[in-house]
Amino acid sequence: MTWVTLKTTNARWEADLMQQVLASHDIPCRILDLGIPSYFGAGSPAALQVRSQDRWTALLLLSSPEEDPQEASDNR
User: Fold this and answer.
1) Do 14 and 69 contact (CB within 8 A), yes or no?
2) Which of 7, 26, 39, 44 lies in the 20 to 30 Å Cα band around 72?
3) What is the pTM of this model?
4) Under 8 Å CB-to-CB from 13, ≥6 apart: which residues?
């Protein structure tokens, strides 16, 4: 099974949150710690990995929703 790194973050909690989102959609993923755990709640760098066949689905689930083009022109 081939795993690809989807996102990296400086805070482990952020990777945990993304993992929960993907798990709720039955997408297997794992978190790799990239550094030494820090103290005082600063977090530690982490990478979120998914299987290569789930890459695009996971990216769509974790991406920001796009703004409706009609709505954007009305707000100008």
Assistant:
1) no
2) 7
3) 0.73
4) 43
Distance CA 15, CA 33 (A): 10
Give the model confidence (pLDDT) of 9-58 as tens digits. Answer: 988 889 999 999 999 999 999 999 887 765 555 678 899 999 999 999 99
Token pair, residue 64, equals: 């920001």
Identify whether the C-beta of residue 63 lies closer than 8 Å to the C-beta of residue 42: no
Report d(CA 5, CA 47) in Å as an integer.
6
What is the maximum span of the chain, computed from C-alpha positions, in angstroms?
48
Residues 56/46, Cβ–Cβ less than 8 Å: no
